[in-house]
Every structure is written in structure tokens, then in C-alpha cells.
Amino acid sequence: MEQLERRQTRHKRKKFRTGRFIFLIIIALLLGAVAYSVQQYRSGQNLASETKLPEQDFVADVKKGEIENFLILGVDSRGEEKSRTDTMMLLSWNHDTNDIKLVSFMRDIYADIPGYQSYKLNTAYYLGGVQLLKDTLNAMFEVPIHHYAVIDFKSFEALIDILAPNGITMDVEKDMSAYIGVSLKQGTQQLNGKELLGYARFRQDAEGDFGRVARQQKVMDALKSELLSPANAKNLPKFIGAAQGYMTTDLTSAQELKMALFIAAGGGVEIEKMTIPVEGTYTFNSYQHAGSVLEIDQQQNQALLHEFLQMK
Fold first, then answer.
1. Which of 69, 121, 269, 304 has the most crowded Cβ, counting Cβ within 10 A?
2. Strand stretches in 57-178, DSSP E
3. Are 245 and 43 spatial neighbours (Cβ–Cβ below 8 Å)?
4. Which residues of 266-276 are buried (b: 16+ CB within 10 A; e: fewer)?
5. What percent of the chain clears pLDDT 70, i.e. is strictly above it?
6. Torsion angle, alpha carbons of 273, 276, 280, 281, to 10
């Protein structure tokens, strides 16, 4: 009996030592992961410390309900103080359902810009930055905008290379080279940051700016997949750190991280997409002061946009 008790005691001690060892290993791994993440985050911050675009004036609309709208702008600054927006998107996130919707606004929309003569929509940013473009979209489509993010194209290239060092898989639908700084061949391939930007900017074909907007939306889909890919988890700390420098936004680091975690928690997030103007709701025109433009049925496009965003 006594011998049995001694064996049981030794067995319990062995189990305890094994359990404690495993616990210590787990703690060490967690601490190592945290240390690595912090180091990579700071590395990303340092990498982008001198490239950030100037802060922008921005007055957010009051948020009502569970829908939060983000104005996402891509600019080709080339070191100039003023630039036009080549990419204008509204990302709409429903907190309740975790649905993501993406609206692209064509840059050649003939827009009533508050305080100015009517011009192409992308001129609003040139004249008055984020706030004037937001005011223009508010007035034309009565859509609230709660946050903004502006990224320069060179910074976009760098962020892609951090997130996906081996490139992002894209199906390039045709040969592309004119005015994009790279030569792309038709077919599925891995595109680095510069190549992906060139793909998104190409418009020298029959589709023109409509084709470019479709490719920009396709790129956003691919980026979503890369952000949620377990294979890229190790790159996220550096990516988020670099984004702090490469992007100008009203969001804090904590808010950006919270948004990313909530979206990621939704699993396989699908992005519904829309382009303004909607097919059949515009005509082509030309003005001496503005050049070739899209004159849109504003009321019809506003109604369709509200329906798409499920605005009450």
C-alpha cells in the first residue's frame, strides 16, 4: 500500500513538472511573438517616417446606426503640394452584419463643387483637399462620410511589398504597358507593388476609365484576401506600422487595429461592389474649362447608391 502511494506521488510530481514546463514554453512563445510584433511594428514605422502626406482638414459626419463609411483616396503627388485623386472609393462597413461594400466614383463625373465652378470630381481634392471632396460627395449624393484615408501611389507600392513580399496573384486580362511604368503580360501572375499599381492604373484601351475602376476594385478584393491570409500574419505588424507613416487618416492606430480585427473575425468577408455612375445613368459631354466629362443623372444615382448602402 505504502509503495503504491509513493508511485502515485512520483507520478503526480512528474505530471506537475511536465505541465509547468509546457506552460512555461507557451508563455515564452507568446512573449517572443509579442516582442517580434513590436519590433516589426516599429520597423515599419521607421521605414515610413519621412514619407507621410500632410495632415488634412476633415470634419466627420455624425454616425447614426451601425453603418460606418470611409472615404479612401489614392493620389499621385510626385512631390507636388497639390494633386488630383486618381482613386476615389467609399468603403461602407456594417458593424452588425460585418458586411463590407465598396463604391467607386469615376473621376470624370461632372460635379458641382461647393464654392467653385463645376469641374471633374477629382478636381475637388486639388482645390480643397479631403474636406472639399467630402462636401462635394455629401451635396451630390447625400451620403455621410465618417473617416478618410489618403495614400500616395509610391507608398502604396511599398505597403504591398511589405504585406506580400512574394507578390499578389492577379489575373491580368490583357497586355498592359502604356503610361503605367511597367510591362504586364496577359495571364495569371504574381505582381509586386509597382506592378500591381500599374495594373490598377491602366486605362489605355477601349474601356478607358471604366476598365480602370473595375481593376481597382479587383485589386481591393485581392488585398482583402492577402490581409486575411494566415500566411501573411507574420507581415501584419510591419505592415500596420508602415501604414501609420504611408497613409494620412483621421483614424488612430487603435481604431485601425480594432477595425481590422472586427472584419477579420467575420471570416471569409465578401466585398460587394458598385460604380458611380451606374450604367445607363450618364452621357458623355465636353466643356472647354473641364475637358471630356460624364454628365450623370444625379437623382437616379443617389437613389441607387442609397439602396446599395441600405441607407434608411
1. 121
2. 67-75, 85-94, 100-105, 110-111, 119-120, 147-152, 168-172
3. no
4. eeebeeebbbb
5. 75
6. 150
Q: How many CB atoms lie within 10 A of CB 127?
A: 16
Find the mean pLDDT for residues 30-43: 59
Write down how long the chain is: 312
**Going edge to edge, which strands form the sheet with 100-105?**
247-249, 147-152, 67-75, 85-94, 100-105, 271-276
Helix (H/G/I), strand (E/B), else coil: 76:
coil
Looking up cell 450604367, which residue turns up?
Answer: 279
pTM of the model: 0.82
DSSP three-state, residue 168: strand
pLDDT range class, residue 291, cuts 50, 70, 90: very high
- How far from each other are the two terminal CA atoms of the chain, in whole angstroms? 77
Plot region of 249 (φ>0 → left; ψ -120 to 50 → alpha; else → beta): beta
Q: Which residues, 6+ apart, have CB-to-CB distance to 47 below 8 Å? A: 158, 162, 238, 241, 242, 245
pLDDT tens sequence across 60-71: 999 888 899 999
